[in-house]
Amino acid sequence: MTDPVALFGQMDIYLLDQLLRGRIRPGMAVLDAGAGHGRNLAYFLRERYEVLALDSAPQAIAAVRHLARQLAPHLPAASFRAEAVEASSFPDHCADVVISSAVLHFARDEKHFQSMLDGSWRLLRPGGMLFCRLASTIDRAHQLAKSGLDEARRAIGMLRDDDLPGPDKLAALAWSFEADSGIPCRYVETGQSVEVRPAVKLALYRVAQEGLTNIRKHAHPERVEVRLEYLRDGVSLAVEDFTGSQDEPAPAAAIEASGGGYGLTGMRERAELLGGTLTAGPTGCGFRVVLRVPA
Ligand SMILES: Nc1ncnc2c1ncn2[C@@H]1O[C@H](COP(=O)(O)OP(=O)(O)OP(=O)(O)O)[C@@H](O)[C@H]1O
Ligand SMILES: [Mg+2]
Question: Which CATH homologous superfamily contains domain 167-294?
C-alpha cells in the first residue's frame, strides 16, 4: 500500500476531506494564504495543480520554493511570495481555492482580522472555495469572538454551500424577517443590476442582516423597507423602519452612546475597506441605515 504521507505530505485532515470529496480538482489554481513551510502543498505541487502561496515569513517562502523546485520545477519562483495576505500582490480572483489554515488567529485586532479575511476573499474567484480553519484560543479580543469569528463561521458554512450570500438573498432575508417578527417588510430593487465584487455582495447581505437585527432589538416599527439600488458607479442599500409617529430625531450622540454596540461600527469599517460609506441614524419616524459602495 502506498504510504499516505508520501502521497499527501502533512496535509490538514479537513483539507484532505475536501480533496476526497472531489471539491479540489486537477487544473485548479490553489493559493495557500499562509503557507508556512508548505505542509498543505506537497500533494498539489506533485499533481501539477497551479499552486500559489504567500506567507509573511521569508524563510517559510524559501522552504516552499525549495519544495516546489523538487516537486513542480515548472512553476515560477514568483508563484511563492513573502508578503501578508492583507497586502498581497497577487491579482484579484486569481485562485479557485484559497487555503487559510490556522492563519487568521494571528490577527492583532478586529480590524486586522477583517482585513486578512477581506484579503483572502479578494484572491478568490467568484464561486471559488475559501478553505478557512481557525484553531486557536483567542482570549485577548472579545470583539474578535463577537464579530470576527462569527464571520469566519458564516464564511465556512457559506463556502460549504459554494454560495456567497449577496443581493440575490436579500428578498428572502426580508421575507424571513417578516415571517419571524410579524412586521411587514418590503424588499425593493431599482436600477440596472450589475455583477458586484464578492466582498461587496457579502457587505450588502451583512448590512441588511445587521440592520434587521437592530430593528428586532431596538425598534417596534409599523413597517420596514429594505431597498437595493444599482447606481451608475456602484450600489446602495438602505434598511429603514417606520414607526408612523413623527418623533423628534434623537441626537446622533445618543445613538453612539446608547448601545456601545459593534454592529454599526463593524459595518462602517467594512464599508470603508470597500471604498464606500455607511450612514445610520434616526429619521424622525424611524431609523435608517444606508450602505453605499462602488460595485
Ligand atoms: N432600528 C433602530 N432603531 C432605533 N435605534 C437603533 C436602530 N438600530 C440601531 N439603533 C441604535 O444604534 C445603536 C448602535 O447599533 P449597533 O448595531 O452598533 O449596536 P447594538 O445593536 O446595540 O449592539 P451589537 O450590534 O454589537 O449587538 C444601538 O444600540 C441603538 O441604540
Ligand atoms: Mg446591532
Answer: Histidine kinase-like ATPase, C-terminal domain (3.30.565.10)
